[in-house]
């Protein structure tokens, strides 16, 4: 098994790139080849370093029935988890992170954010804990070369120039000879620590757009939402925090193998110190249509809607 992968730092004004930036894809079973880019991939997005506002597909894109892929499906990448390791100084038990990790694929080579946090609203991350993934907004097509671009910092001071650069660069992931439903860890290394991005290839996959609405909230609700796709054991953390009042969570796109299921797991408690109650629901993958399910937790009513579609060009 072999994956062609390479990476290089992005040249941004005011940021000094490390002299030998090299990142590696690693498998649970063996180490995979790593090297510094010596040539451009088979396709290359225009003006990579220039920030282009992302243009996402519709939240509920129409199903595509004519496709060269079986059953209208595509090979897709699933972001199966995101963890921070050795972040900041050793004495830091938790840190505030901001910045983004995004993918560019052949479907539409603009930024498709996996995570994106502003400096004014950073995320607090414990060492080695899962990072909430607000994205991607659409599925990531894994055909030929897919780019993973990232720029994340640790908030340490009052001003941005006092902050610590965590990771900054771009990695190339190739689909050749990757194993279906096998999880690989892309270790994004920087001066401020390591971010491990777990990825897997799903053959003949479709897109599930997950929408969660919370109503009839009785007081304050502590909730954690994770999902599992296509019998892969790695959890995708969608939400982890407090819920006050009725509202909807941000929708998330998840790749699911067409012959398999998407499983959602909610952990709900009225207080942080109270052991949470666990509620699960499962959805069978489909080329189109949607399914809904309601969960009565005793603290709130959770309504889950999953809309199925195949990837289409914008």
TrEMBL record:
Residues 92-306 form the DUF6598 domain. InterPro entries: DUF6598. It comes from the Eukaryota. Pfam families: DUF6598 (PF20241). Residues 57-88 are annotated as: Disordered. PANTHER family: DUF6598 DOMAIN-CONTAINING PROTEIN, OS07G0486400 PROTEIN. This is DUF6598 domain-containing protein. It comes from Paspalum notatum var. saurae. The lineage of its organism: Eukaryota, Viridiplantae, Streptophyta, Embryophyta, Tracheophyta.
